[in-house]
Amino acid sequence: METVLSGIRSTGNLHLGNYYGALRNFVKMQESNRCFFFIADLHSLTTHPKAADFHGNVRQILAEYLAAGLDPEKCTLYVQSDIPEISEMYVLLNMLAYVGELERTASFKEKVRKHPQNVNAGLLTYPVLMATDILIHRANKVPVGKDQEQHLEITRVYARRFNNMYGANLFPEPDAYNFGGELIKIPGLDGSGKMGKSEGNGVFLMDDEAAIRKKVKKAVTDTGEKTDAMSEPVKNLFTIMSVVSAPEVVSFYREAYAAGSIRYGDMKNQLADDVCKVTLPIRDRILDLLQNEDYLRKVRKNGAEKARESAAATLQEMKKLMGFKGLERA
Ligand code: TYM
Description:
Tyrosyl-Transfer RNA Synthetase; 2 domains
Protein backbone atom coordinates (compact mmCIF):
# COMPACT_ATOMS: atom_id res chain seq x y z
CA MET A 1 0.00 0.00 0.00
CA GLU A 2 1.26 3.47 -0.91
CA THR A 3 1.29 6.43 1.44
CA VAL A 4 -0.33 9.27 -0.49
CA LEU A 5 -0.29 12.91 0.51
CA SER A 6 -1.33 16.18 -1.08
CA GLY A 7 -2.64 19.63 -0.27
CA ILE A 8 -4.15 22.74 -1.77
CA ARG A 9 -3.53 26.32 -0.61
CA SER A 10 -6.49 28.13 0.96
CA THR A 11 -6.22 31.18 -1.25
CA GLY A 12 -9.57 31.09 -3.02
CA ASN A 13 -12.25 28.79 -4.36
CA LEU A 14 -11.12 25.73 -6.29
CA HIS A 15 -11.23 25.75 -10.08
CA LEU A 16 -11.22 23.05 -12.75
CA GLY A 17 -7.40 23.02 -12.77
CA ASN A 18 -7.29 22.15 -9.07
CA TYR A 19 -10.02 19.59 -9.57
CA TYR A 20 -8.50 17.69 -12.50
CA GLY A 21 -4.87 18.29 -11.57
CA ALA A 22 -5.31 17.28 -7.95
CA LEU A 23 -8.62 16.81 -6.14
CA ARG A 24 -10.19 14.23 -8.44
CA ASN A 25 -7.05 12.12 -8.05
CA PHE A 26 -7.32 12.42 -4.26
CA VAL A 27 -10.85 11.06 -4.41
CA LYS A 28 -9.77 8.06 -6.48
CA MET A 29 -6.65 7.35 -4.48
CA GLN A 30 -8.38 7.27 -1.10
CA GLU A 31 -10.01 3.98 -2.07
CA SER A 32 -6.92 1.82 -1.76
CA ASN A 33 -4.08 3.70 -0.09
CA ARG A 34 -3.04 5.28 3.20
CA CYS A 35 -3.98 8.87 2.35
CA PHE A 36 -3.34 12.28 3.88
CA PHE A 37 -5.04 15.32 2.34
CA PHE A 38 -4.81 18.76 3.86
CA ILE A 39 -5.53 22.44 3.47
CA ALA A 40 -2.30 24.43 3.20
CA ASP A 41 -3.27 27.49 5.23
CA LEU A 42 0.31 28.29 6.30
CA HIS A 43 1.37 28.37 2.65
CA SER A 44 -1.44 30.83 1.92
CA LEU A 45 0.22 33.39 4.24
CA THR A 46 2.92 34.20 1.67
CA THR A 47 0.37 36.42 -0.08
CA HIS A 48 -0.95 38.06 3.14
CA PRO A 49 -4.67 37.20 3.16
CA LYS A 50 -6.82 39.47 5.32
CA ALA A 51 -7.19 38.09 8.86
CA ALA A 52 -10.96 38.42 8.55
CA ASP A 53 -10.93 36.10 5.51
CA PHE A 54 -8.42 33.56 6.75
CA HIS A 55 -10.74 31.13 8.56
CA GLY A 56 -13.48 31.37 5.92
CA ASN A 57 -10.98 30.42 3.21
CA VAL A 58 -10.00 27.26 5.10
CA ARG A 59 -13.62 26.33 5.74
CA GLN A 60 -14.46 26.81 2.08
CA ILE A 61 -11.75 24.40 0.90
CA LEU A 62 -12.74 21.87 3.54
CA ALA A 63 -16.33 21.96 2.23
CA GLU A 64 -15.05 21.71 -1.37
CA TYR A 65 -12.88 18.68 -0.52
CA LEU A 66 -15.84 16.89 1.04
CA ALA A 67 -18.26 17.93 -1.71
CA ALA A 68 -15.90 16.54 -4.36
CA GLY A 69 -15.98 13.16 -2.60
CA LEU A 70 -13.21 13.00 -0.02
CA ASP A 71 -14.38 10.68 2.72
CA PRO A 72 -12.93 11.35 6.20
CA GLU A 73 -13.45 7.66 6.99
CA LYS A 74 -11.16 6.68 4.11
CA CYS A 75 -8.47 9.34 4.36
CA THR A 76 -6.93 11.65 6.93
CA LEU A 77 -8.27 15.11 6.16
CA TYR A 78 -6.75 18.01 8.09
CA VAL A 79 -5.70 21.64 8.21
CA GLN A 80 -1.93 22.23 8.04
CA SER A 81 -1.80 24.71 10.95
CA ASP A 82 -3.63 22.26 13.25
CA ILE A 83 -0.45 20.16 13.21
CA PRO A 84 2.25 22.09 15.17
CA GLU A 85 4.74 19.31 14.38
CA ILE A 86 4.81 20.63 10.80
CA SER A 87 6.12 24.03 11.91
CA GLU A 88 8.72 22.38 14.12
CA MET A 89 9.99 20.07 11.41
CA TYR A 90 10.07 22.99 8.96
CA VAL A 91 12.67 24.68 11.20
CA LEU A 92 14.79 21.53 11.19
CA LEU A 93 14.53 21.00 7.45
CA ASN A 94 15.45 24.63 6.74
CA MET A 95 18.97 23.82 7.94
CA LEU A 96 19.34 21.41 5.02
CA ALA A 97 18.00 23.85 2.44
CA TYR A 98 20.56 25.93 0.57
CA VAL A 99 19.52 29.44 -0.39
CA GLY A 100 21.09 29.15 -3.84
CA GLU A 101 18.92 26.16 -4.68
CA LEU A 102 15.79 27.89 -3.44
CA GLU A 103 16.55 31.04 -5.42
CA ARG A 104 16.71 28.98 -8.60
CA THR A 105 13.22 27.48 -8.11
CA ALA A 106 10.94 28.39 -11.03
CA SER A 107 7.95 29.24 -8.80
CA PHE A 108 10.11 31.61 -6.69
CA LYS A 109 11.54 33.36 -9.76
CA GLU A 110 8.03 33.81 -11.14
CA LYS A 111 6.78 35.32 -7.86
CA VAL A 112 9.74 37.71 -7.77
CA ARG A 113 8.95 38.81 -11.31
CA LYS A 114 5.24 39.23 -10.69
CA HIS A 115 5.34 40.70 -7.17
CA PRO A 116 8.72 42.38 -6.64
CA GLN A 117 7.31 44.33 -3.68
CA ASN A 118 6.56 41.12 -1.70
CA VAL A 119 9.61 38.87 -1.85
CA ASN A 120 9.33 37.53 1.70
CA ALA A 121 11.46 34.73 3.21
CA GLY A 122 8.38 32.50 3.43
CA LEU A 123 8.15 32.65 -0.33
CA LEU A 124 11.80 31.63 -0.67
CA THR A 125 11.39 28.69 1.70
CA TYR A 126 7.97 27.70 0.35
CA PRO A 127 9.43 24.42 -1.04
CA VAL A 128 10.90 23.59 2.39
CA LEU A 129 7.47 23.81 4.01
CA MET A 130 6.01 21.76 1.18
CA ALA A 131 8.73 19.12 1.57
CA THR A 132 7.95 19.06 5.29
CA ASP A 133 4.27 18.42 4.54
CA ILE A 134 5.24 15.40 2.48
CA LEU A 135 8.12 13.97 4.51
CA ILE A 136 6.38 14.28 7.88
CA HIS A 137 4.07 11.43 6.86
CA ARG A 138 6.82 9.70 4.87
CA ALA A 139 4.57 9.79 1.81
CA ASN A 140 5.77 8.25 -1.45
CA LYS A 141 3.03 9.34 -3.88
CA VAL A 142 1.97 12.97 -4.26
CA PRO A 143 -0.93 13.72 -6.61
CA VAL A 144 -0.34 17.21 -8.04
CA GLY A 145 -0.55 19.17 -11.27
CA LYS A 146 2.38 19.75 -13.59
CA ASP A 147 3.31 23.07 -11.94
CA GLN A 148 4.37 21.27 -8.73
CA GLU A 149 6.87 18.91 -10.37
CA GLN A 150 9.95 20.89 -9.37
CA HIS A 151 8.80 21.04 -5.74
CA LEU A 152 8.75 17.25 -5.71
CA GLU A 153 12.28 17.17 -7.11
CA ILE A 154 13.40 19.43 -4.25
CA THR A 155 11.61 17.20 -1.73
CA ARG A 156 13.56 14.21 -3.03
CA VAL A 157 16.81 16.15 -2.64
CA TYR A 158 16.02 16.92 1.02
CA ALA A 159 14.95 13.34 1.74
CA ARG A 160 18.22 12.04 0.28
CA ARG A 161 20.29 14.73 1.99
CA PHE A 162 18.82 13.99 5.42
CA ASN A 163 19.22 10.25 5.02
CA ASN A 164 22.87 10.68 3.93
CA MET A 165 23.76 13.26 6.54
CA TYR A 166 22.41 11.18 9.42
CA GLY A 167 23.18 7.74 8.03
CA ALA A 168 19.53 6.76 8.13
CA ASN A 169 16.75 5.60 5.88
CA LEU A 170 14.00 7.69 7.44
CA PHE A 171 12.49 9.39 4.39
CA PRO A 172 11.36 7.74 1.14
CA GLU A 173 11.84 9.77 -2.06
CA PRO A 174 8.33 10.72 -3.17
CA ASP A 175 7.03 10.92 -6.73
CA ALA A 176 4.51 13.33 -8.20
CA TYR A 177 1.51 11.39 -9.41
CA ASN A 178 -1.53 11.58 -11.63
CA PHE A 179 -4.05 8.78 -11.82
CA GLY A 180 -4.09 8.87 -15.60
CA GLY A 181 -0.29 8.71 -15.99
CA GLU A 182 1.16 12.09 -17.00
CA LEU A 183 0.92 15.14 -14.75
CA ILE A 184 -1.46 17.63 -16.30
CA LYS A 185 -1.88 21.35 -16.77
CA ILE A 186 -5.40 22.65 -17.34
CA PRO A 187 -5.25 25.85 -19.39
CA GLY A 188 -7.35 28.95 -18.71
CA LEU A 189 -10.18 30.24 -20.89
CA ASP A 190 -8.20 33.30 -21.92
CA GLY A 191 -6.21 31.60 -24.63
CA SER A 192 -2.84 31.27 -22.91
CA GLY A 193 -1.26 29.95 -19.73
CA LYS A 194 -2.69 27.75 -17.00
CA MET A 195 -5.97 28.13 -15.20
CA GLY A 196 -5.29 29.93 -11.93
CA LYS A 197 -7.12 31.32 -8.92
CA SER A 198 -6.08 34.91 -9.50
CA GLU A 199 -5.77 34.89 -13.28
CA GLY A 200 -9.46 35.61 -13.95
CA ASN A 201 -9.45 32.75 -16.49
CA GLY A 202 -11.01 29.92 -14.51
CA VAL A 203 -14.25 28.03 -13.97
CA PHE A 204 -14.77 27.44 -10.26
CA LEU A 205 -16.52 24.53 -8.56
CA MET A 206 -18.67 27.21 -6.87
CA ASP A 207 -19.77 28.91 -10.10
CA ASP A 208 -23.49 28.71 -10.88
CA GLU A 209 -24.80 27.69 -14.27
CA ALA A 210 -25.20 31.23 -15.59
CA ALA A 211 -21.61 32.11 -14.64
CA ILE A 212 -20.25 28.97 -16.30
CA ARG A 213 -22.13 29.55 -19.54
CA LYS A 214 -21.04 33.17 -19.65
CA LYS A 215 -17.38 32.33 -19.07
CA VAL A 216 -17.26 29.51 -21.60
CA LYS A 217 -19.05 31.63 -24.20
CA LYS A 218 -16.43 34.35 -23.78
CA ALA A 219 -13.48 31.91 -24.03
CA VAL A 220 -10.89 32.98 -26.56
CA THR A 221 -10.77 30.95 -29.83
CA ASP A 222 -9.47 32.06 -33.22
CA THR A 223 -10.92 33.49 -36.42
CA GLY A 224 -11.54 30.04 -37.84
CA GLU A 225 -9.14 30.64 -40.73
CA LYS A 226 -7.42 27.42 -41.66
CA THR A 227 -3.72 27.31 -40.70
CA ASP A 228 -1.18 24.49 -40.54
CA ALA A 229 -1.11 24.23 -36.78
CA MET A 230 -3.99 24.51 -34.34
CA SER A 231 -3.89 27.87 -32.55
CA GLU A 232 -3.04 27.93 -28.83
CA PRO A 233 -6.52 29.10 -27.65
CA VAL A 234 -8.29 26.36 -29.61
CA LYS A 235 -5.83 23.74 -28.39
CA ASN A 236 -6.67 24.89 -24.87
CA LEU A 237 -10.40 24.46 -25.41
CA PHE A 238 -9.77 20.93 -26.64
CA THR A 239 -7.64 20.22 -23.57
CA ILE A 240 -10.45 21.32 -21.26
CA MET A 241 -12.94 19.35 -23.34
CA SER A 242 -10.78 16.24 -23.08
CA VAL A 243 -11.17 16.20 -19.29
CA VAL A 244 -14.86 17.12 -18.95
CA SER A 245 -16.47 15.55 -22.03
CA ALA A 246 -16.94 12.00 -23.25
CA PRO A 247 -14.24 10.74 -25.69
CA GLU A 248 -16.72 10.50 -28.59
CA VAL A 249 -17.71 14.13 -28.09
CA VAL A 250 -14.05 15.17 -28.25
CA SER A 251 -13.52 13.07 -31.40
CA PHE A 252 -16.56 14.61 -33.03
CA TYR A 253 -15.20 18.15 -32.60
CA ARG A 254 -11.65 17.13 -33.53
CA GLU A 255 -12.95 15.68 -36.78
CA ALA A 256 -15.03 18.79 -37.42
CA TYR A 257 -11.90 20.87 -36.83
CA ALA A 258 -9.85 18.74 -39.22
CA ALA A 259 -12.59 19.01 -41.86
CA GLY A 260 -12.76 22.78 -41.42
CA SER A 261 -16.45 22.60 -40.54
CA ILE A 262 -16.18 23.30 -36.82
CA ARG A 263 -18.44 25.94 -35.29
CA TYR A 264 -16.85 27.26 -32.15
CA GLY A 265 -20.24 28.41 -30.85
CA ASP A 266 -21.50 24.82 -30.89
CA MET A 267 -18.32 23.52 -29.34
CA LYS A 268 -18.62 26.05 -26.52
CA ASN A 269 -22.26 25.14 -25.85
CA GLN A 270 -21.26 21.50 -25.58
CA LEU A 271 -18.31 22.37 -23.35
CA ALA A 272 -20.50 24.49 -21.05
CA ASP A 273 -23.04 21.61 -20.79
CA ASP A 274 -20.31 19.16 -19.86
CA VAL A 275 -18.63 21.47 -17.34
CA CYS A 276 -22.04 22.02 -15.70
CA LYS A 277 -22.59 18.26 -15.47
CA VAL A 278 -19.35 17.91 -13.51
CA THR A 279 -19.42 20.96 -11.28
CA LEU A 280 -23.07 21.80 -10.49
CA PRO A 281 -23.71 18.71 -8.32
CA ILE A 282 -20.48 19.52 -6.45
CA ARG A 283 -21.63 23.12 -6.02
CA ASP A 284 -24.91 21.94 -4.46
CA ARG A 285 -23.04 19.80 -1.97
CA ILE A 286 -20.62 22.63 -1.10
CA LEU A 287 -23.58 24.91 -0.29
CA ASP A 288 -25.13 22.21 1.91
CA LEU A 289 -21.89 21.48 3.74
CA LEU A 290 -21.25 25.15 4.44
CA GLN A 291 -24.51 25.14 6.42
CA ASN A 292 -23.31 22.26 8.56
CA GLU A 293 -20.86 23.88 10.94
CA ASP A 294 -20.89 21.02 13.47
CA TYR A 295 -19.99 18.44 10.85
CA LEU A 296 -17.15 20.55 9.40
CA ARG A 297 -15.74 21.09 12.89
CA LYS A 298 -15.94 17.40 13.70
CA VAL A 299 -14.16 16.40 10.48
CA ARG A 300 -11.41 18.94 11.14
CA LYS A 301 -10.90 17.80 14.73
CA ASN A 302 -10.79 14.07 13.94
CA GLY A 303 -8.44 14.68 11.02
CA ALA A 304 -6.07 16.74 13.17
CA GLU A 305 -5.89 13.96 15.75
CA LYS A 306 -5.02 11.31 13.17
CA ALA A 307 -2.51 13.52 11.34
CA ARG A 308 -0.76 14.59 14.56
CA GLU A 309 -0.18 11.02 15.59
CA SER A 310 1.58 10.21 12.33
CA ALA A 311 3.49 13.53 12.23
CA ALA A 312 4.69 13.26 15.83
CA ALA A 313 6.07 9.77 15.22
CA THR A 314 8.22 10.97 12.28
CA LEU A 315 9.36 14.11 14.08
CA GLN A 316 10.43 12.08 17.08
CA GLU A 317 12.54 9.75 14.94
CA MET A 318 14.01 12.66 13.04
CA LYS A 319 15.05 14.49 16.20
CA LYS A 320 16.53 11.36 17.67
CA LEU A 321 18.67 10.88 14.55
CA MET A 322 19.80 14.51 14.76
CA GLY A 323 20.97 14.04 18.33
CA PHE A 324 18.20 15.69 20.33
CA LYS A 325 17.73 13.98 23.66
CA GLY A 326 15.12 16.21 25.29
CA LEU A 327 14.68 17.21 28.90
CA GLU A 328 13.98 13.78 30.24
CA ARG A 329 17.43 12.55 29.25
CA ALA A 330 19.42 15.70 30.07
P1 TYM B 1 -2.07 25.09 -5.34
O1 TYM B 1 -2.93 25.44 -4.19
O2 TYM B 1 -1.54 26.19 -6.20
O3 TYM B 1 -2.80 24.09 -6.30
C1 TYM B 1 -3.38 22.91 -5.77
C2 TYM B 1 -3.25 21.77 -6.74
O4 TYM B 1 -3.90 22.07 -7.97
C3 TYM B 1 -2.99 21.88 -9.05
N1 TYM B 1 -3.29 22.88 -10.08
C4 TYM B 1 -3.43 22.56 -11.37
N2 TYM B 1 -3.35 21.37 -12.02
C5 TYM B 1 -3.57 21.39 -13.35
N3 TYM B 1 -3.86 22.52 -14.04
C6 TYM B 1 -3.95 23.72 -13.44
N4 TYM B 1 -4.26 24.81 -14.13
C7 TYM B 1 -3.71 23.78 -12.04
N5 TYM B 1 -3.72 24.79 -11.13
C8 TYM B 1 -3.44 24.21 -9.93
C9 TYM B 1 -1.62 22.09 -8.46
O5 TYM B 1 -0.63 21.46 -9.24
C10 TYM B 1 -1.78 21.46 -7.10
O6 TYM B 1 -1.61 20.07 -7.18
N6 TYM B 1 2.22 24.09 -3.13
C11 TYM B 1 0.92 23.55 -3.42
C12 TYM B 1 0.15 23.13 -2.17
C13 TYM B 1 0.91 22.24 -1.27
C14 TYM B 1 1.19 20.85 -1.50
C15 TYM B 1 1.95 20.42 -0.36
C16 TYM B 1 0.90 19.96 -2.53
C17 TYM B 1 1.46 22.57 -0.09
N7 TYM B 1 2.07 21.49 0.47
C18 TYM B 1 2.39 19.11 -0.26
C19 TYM B 1 1.35 18.65 -2.41
C20 TYM B 1 2.09 18.24 -1.30
C21 TYM B 1 0.13 24.61 -4.13
O7 TYM B 1 0.36 25.78 -3.97
O8 TYM B 1 -0.87 24.16 -4.86
